[in-house]
Design brief:
Strand content: 35-45%
Bound molecules: copper (II) ion
Number of strands: 10
Number of domains: 2
Order of helices and strands: HEEEEEEEEEE
Distance between the termini: 11 Å
Largest sheet: 6 strands, mixed
CATH superfamily of the largest domain: Cupredoxins -  blue copper proteins
CATH topology of the largest domain: Immunoglobulin-like
Shape: globular
CATH architecture of the largest domain: Sandwich
Strand order of the largest sheet: 1-4-10-9-6-7
Radius of gyration: 14 Å
Helix content: under 10%
Structural class: mainly beta
Number of helices: 1
Amino acid sequence: MPSLPPLPLAAAAGAAAAAALAGCGEPAPVAVDAAPLRLTLSEYRVEPQAVRVPAGRVEIVVRNGGATVHRLQLRSGDRTRTLATSPPLRPGQTARLVVELAPGRYVDACAVERHDTLGEHGTIVAR
Ligand SMILES: [Cu+2]
């Protein structure tokens, strides 16, 4: 993010500052360097909603933290290609996906009907 001022050194403070700077547009991605990338699905959100990971082999552990069935689907940024789909997850269940991500932007959304349009989606930026 060359246009943003340098973030504070502390990771937590950096994430908070990035969120504050995001304003009303897309949230600034939270940098996730530790593997695996942990995502939580619920009604109707993906948390964290915007993440940035190192490109290459990415291990995703997705957990259903909600009260209904959810199913993570990872797609290309233009949503034309599906890279991986988890099994349907009942509340409390977890799945592990391993994907090879070239540098770029990806969309992670719930594959259960209508959940995506209700807001259950996020972005993953690989770089
Ligand atoms: Cu869902």
